[in-house]
């Protein structure tokens, strides 16, 4: 469809097996993502892109452990292992990703003081990435979301896209989840309540 875009979220080395924040089976989605990429005329990629001292890293909080939560000025924040640090191999797209016709890369999480799950907003839900304006100006109305991880960056990207007025679907087979304390079930419940299509 001319007004449709494939949004490929964070298919990066650190989120795949062997990476510092590996999502189980993260690399298994790549053949399907590549197939979808070759079926879509338009696509956008997101790339997690953190400074070494990012505030979401557990290493920046004395005595804190990864996968625990703290309160930040913008609300609850899960702490993560250091990952997708700017300029490192872990931040690079997986070498098997084959998306030569991608038209835009949105880098997110480069502000030290705030994390960024969504392709549209930082975790303060106020600071935009500019993606909405880009898609709107180009006349896109329908977004298909794939990538990593289903219950974090894919979830919040899909939710924000829907709230901004786009038609949204998520291809579940082209995602994998972290699943911390029921986040997969919460994601599916949220999608159903918001009218986000899960295929």
In the CATH scheme, the class would be: Alpha Beta
Order of helices and strands: EHEEEEHEHEHE
Number of domains: 1
Q: Helix fraction?
A: 10-25%
**Which strands sit side by side, in order, in the main sheet?**
5-2-1-6-7-8
Tally of contiguous helical segments: 4
User: C-alpha Rg, in Å?
Assistant: 16 Å
The CATH level-2 architecture is identified as 3-Layer(aba) Sandwich
CATH homologous superfamily caption: Isochorismatase-like
Low-confidence stretches: none
Shape: globular
Mean pLDDT, all residues:
97
Could you describe the largest sheet, including whether it forms a barrel? Answer: 6 strands, parallel
Distance between the termini: 17 Å
Fill in the CATH topology.
Answer: Rossmann fold
β content, as a range?
15-25%
Q: How would you portray this structure in words?
A:
This protein is of the alpha/beta class and 199 residues long. It has one domain: Rossmann fold. Helix content is 22%, strand content 22%. The chain has four helices and eight strands, in the order βαββββαβαβαβ. The protein has helices at 30-39, 131-137, 150-163, 183-194; strands at 4-9, 43-48, 69-72, 75-78, 104-108, 142-148, 167-176, 197-198. The strands form two sheets. A six-stranded parallel β-sheet has the order 5-2-1-6-7-8. It has a two-stranded antiparallel sheet with strand order 3-4. Helix 4 links the parallel strand 7 (167-176) and strand 8 (197-198). Helix 3 packs parallel to helix 4 (183-194). The radius of gyration is 16 Å and the shape is globular. The chain starts with a strand and ends with a strand. The model has no long low-confidence stretch (mean pLDDT 97).
């Amino acid at each position: 469809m001319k007004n449709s875009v494939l949004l490929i979220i964070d298919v990066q080395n650190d989120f795949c097996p062997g990476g510092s924040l590996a999502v189980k089976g993260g690399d298994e989605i790549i053949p399907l993502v590549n197939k979808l990429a070759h079926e879509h005329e338009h696509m956008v990629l997101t790339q997690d892109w953190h400074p070494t001292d990012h505030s979401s890293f557990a290493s920046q909080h004395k005595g804190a452990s990864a996968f625990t939560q703290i309160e930040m000025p913008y609300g609850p924040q899960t702490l993560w292992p250091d990952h997708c640090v700017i300029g490192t191999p872990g931040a690079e797209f997986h070498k098997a990703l084959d998306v030569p016709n991608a038209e835009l890369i949105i880098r997110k999480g480069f502000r030290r003081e705030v994390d960024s799950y969504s392709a549209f907003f930082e975790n303060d839900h106020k600071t935009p990435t500019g993606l909405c304006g880009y898609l709107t100006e180009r006349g896109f109305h329908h977004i298909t979301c794939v990538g990593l991880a289903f219950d974090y960056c894919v979830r919040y990207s899909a939710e924000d896209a829907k709230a901004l007025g786009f038609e949204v679907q998520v291809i579940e087979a082209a995602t994998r989840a972290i699943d911390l304390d029921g986040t997969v079930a919460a994601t599916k419940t949220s999608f159903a309540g918001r009218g986000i299509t899960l295929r």
